[in-house]
Amino acid sequence: xxxxxxxxxxxxxxxxxxxxxxxxxxxxxxxxxxxxxxxxxxxxxxxxxxxxxxxxxxxxxxxxxxxxxxxxxxxxxxxxxxxxxxxxxxxxxxxxxxxxxxxxxxxxxxxxxxxxxxxxxxxxxxxxxxxxxxxxxxxxxxxxxxxxxxxxxxxxxxxxxxxxxxxxxxxxxxxxxxxxxxxxxxxxxxxxxxxxxxxxxxxxxxxxxxxxxxxxxxxxxxxxxxxxxxxxxxxxxxx
Length: 239
Description:
single chain, alpha+beta, Nucleoside Triphosphate Pyrophosphohydrolase, 5 helices, 27% strand, hydrolase, WH_DNA-bd_sf, NUDIX hydrolase, hydrolase activity
């Protein structure tokens, strides 16, 4: 019997194909990763990244599988989702040869309902530019998958609009600066943030103000766009 004689579901089960998701959020100034219980009896640590098999009956594309792994743990919908890498070999999974497609997701910081098995673990950025981040212990090879996604985030926040996808629907420029500080350990000058995001016609002013100990801060939202916009250079202070 050739592979063409097997129905799609059997082919996928033979191949050990899965989708793993690194879902990140900012919560009270802390970068966190979404985790699920590690179900394998020989798992070295109790928590793992959201991961699961492709279901050909309901998943018409890989992104649907990735989204399903997130929504099984939280009601939050990712504001950003992109494919990071594909890994396949005969030693990463004790069950045999396996292949996984790794996705990277950003979730906005508003409080959301999490299901009972979900747990958000802190990621510590101890030095600037994300060198040697303090990563939580995760089962399998998931800590290395998390590190790859963190490196992608640290790079792209410097030359794209990606920082905005970690913020609530409305925010101040100071909160954009706080995203840089949380992820990189430092931030560009406020004038650079204003020039890039307001001067670049990326944000719109809601006309509302946020009042605190300093002068009132304008509240912005992103203009509608289905992709992260790129800039032609890094911030000088984050190089």
